[in-house]
Each structure stands twice: as structure tokens, then as C-alpha cells.
Amino acid sequence: MMARLARCSILLALAAALPASAWAFSCPALTRVGISDLGYSSYQDGPRYRGTSIDIVEELGRRTGCRFELIWFPRSRLFAQFDAGLVDMAMASSRSDERERKGRYIPYTYTQFELVLSKKVPGSFRSLADFVDHSSARLNITRGVYYPPEAAVQLERLQAAGRLEYVSDYDVVFRKIQSGRAEGTFSPPAIHLLHQRRYHMSKDMVSYTVPETPRRIIGAYVSRANVPFPVYRHFASAIGAIVADGTVQRIYARHLGPGIAKQMFAGGVRELLDAIEAQPQE
What we know:
By secondary structure, this protein is of the alpha/beta class. It is built from twelve helices and 13 strands.
């Protein structure tokens, strides 16, 4: 496992015929894409990588004719590598001021964190604050994930009470829940559903949508230092087309199931398209 957490890569090449206009664009020799253990977003299946992020990158390769390399990192290391210029694109990323200094953003989907607990935990919770105040259960979460400020305040309270532990990845999180060394976690459905199914825990867990984490946009960060602006705009245009024609919804339905995908994209994709169009035009 640790060997695979070193630099593991797979090349994604052009897989379909492209119009002549696409060939007029000059692709980089290679675009290195950082991925991490994020449930159905990206996961390791033996020697292969699978997930929604991988499918989106493959589709981006088909539509642009460009060549991409997937590189696996623990989530806690991914943006350190991105900041150091060793990764050109980071998938499944929340937008933040800190990340904005090093990268340009391309939105493509939504996410919403949920409080995920063993059914052995007594009580029912209306919010993360309610859980902090009225339970003694312990959570495990991963390093390197951006948590909204309202949720971060409650997570800090849990940590101060000795009820929160940061670990390296979600595989560790769910193995600890399974062994009784933690009672829950805080993650989006795209992450916790894969691990529940993988460890045959689906019937033993319950999830709560909490007001501290409203639905928010997720996307890819593209390196300012390594990727020229015209290339970024070309990638953004292609991802916009993937969102507009329903491809991204079909990708999520294939991995998470039609019901959850429908819930994720309730209200359509206009907000995503507006966010893509609002990106820099320099």
C-alpha cells in the first residue's frame, strides 16, 4: 500500500476523433494531475485508478486532444506538491483564498459534507454543534481537506474535547470505525458511500445533513506557474462543455447511483456554468 502511495501514474491519451479546430490548439507535452483517496471521486482498484475525477480527466483528454498523467498522493500532501510546482492540476478541490494564489479554478460539480455515525451512537442530531454538545462519540477525519469555517469551529471543539483525530486517509478512517476505535466521520456522500460499501458497513451507519456545511461547488485547480493562461482557458471551456451536455451528471450517476446524482445536481448546472464563465478572461 505504501509503495502505491509513492508516485503512481497512468497516462491518459486521446481516445476519440476530434474536429480540426481542436488540433489547432497547442497542448502541453504533459499535464500532471494530482488525485487522492476521496471515495468515488478517486480511489485505487488494484493497479488502476477509478472514480469521477478519473472519468472527468479522461473526458477532458478526449475533448482537448491533450495528454494527462494521474499522480496519487495522500490528500495532506497533494497541495504541498501543487504549491511546489510538481503537479499541474489538482482534482476534487474546494475553492479557497490560499489555493487561489497558486492556481486558477475550474468548477465542475457540487458537494456537501455529512455527519456519518455508527448506528450504535445514541441520539439524533440536527447539526454538528448539536452533536458536539449532546454526544460523547469520537470522529476521525483526514488531513488536507478543506472544511468550511462554520464546520471547522465545531471540529476544533471536538478536538479540544479529545473526540477528534486526524488520520492520513479515509481508508484508515473506516477501518477504525469498523474496529470500534472511532464512531464516525465527517465527509461527503461521494467519499463515505464507497467506504461503507467496501467494508460492508452500509446497514450499520447513518448520515446527517448539517447546516454548518451547505452545498458548495467543487472543481479543479490549474497551476498558475506551470500552465499558460490560454491552456487553462481551453481546459475550462472543455470542462464547461462536459457540464453543459450532461456528461458530468452521467459520470456521477454511474459511480454513486442515479438517486444520489440527482440529489447532487438538483436545480441543474446553471450555477456551475456561471461560475466557469466568471473565471478570469485575461
